[in-house]
Hints:
By secondary structure, the chain is mainly alpha-helical. The protein has helices spanning 2-13, 15-34, 39-50, 61-64, 72-79, 81-88, 96-104, 125-139, 151-160, 168-176, 184-188, 213-216.
Amino acid sequence: MIIDTFLKALEARRSVVAAHGRRVSAFAVRLATQYGLAPDVVESVRVGALLHDAGKLLVPECILTKPGRLNEREWVELRSHPDKGLDLLERVGLDDRMREIVLHHHERYDGKGYPDGLVGSAIPWAVRIVAVMDAFDALTSPREYRAALSVDAARALISREAGTRFCPWVVSGFLSLPASLLDHGSADSHPACYVPDNLPVASSIHATRVWTATVACR
Length: 218
């Protein structure tokens, strides 16, 4: 109930951020399901992804919508949103995995992310899933400074950053998802608290295949 109330506040004050969170949540649930993660883990991914950008409630809108490059002060302000989000959500009742998603979704696999510079396996599995789907939705959504990329173009860019920005195992799973599961319309069609009815158990999921860069760039 408290989470629902917070989501409504986010929708009212930062509707673009809220819509992004809904899409990232839907995409991340699909990828987590692909890996056959336990239902409680998938639920953490779902809620954590919905709220991952909650800290942007405390970032001035002029920074979030600036059409040009951010200056140093603005960039520092924007980079503070994971910490601010965790502070905002302190009383919401998030589990540890949800808290990790909110705080660490901008960490990079090579350790060059923020806020803590986590490297490789130090980044929780659920966080790595949300990070890839967060980037995918950002790339395929229009911004003030660029048009939205196609699904194939976004896949190619993410594929090239496997092992540097993103976990290569998560990228492999992402690239194996059918394009029909990565459509913005299908993600937006689900309400914020959507839970899949046909969540499969781990034994029903086969290992994902590697979608090569050649296929990704076609």
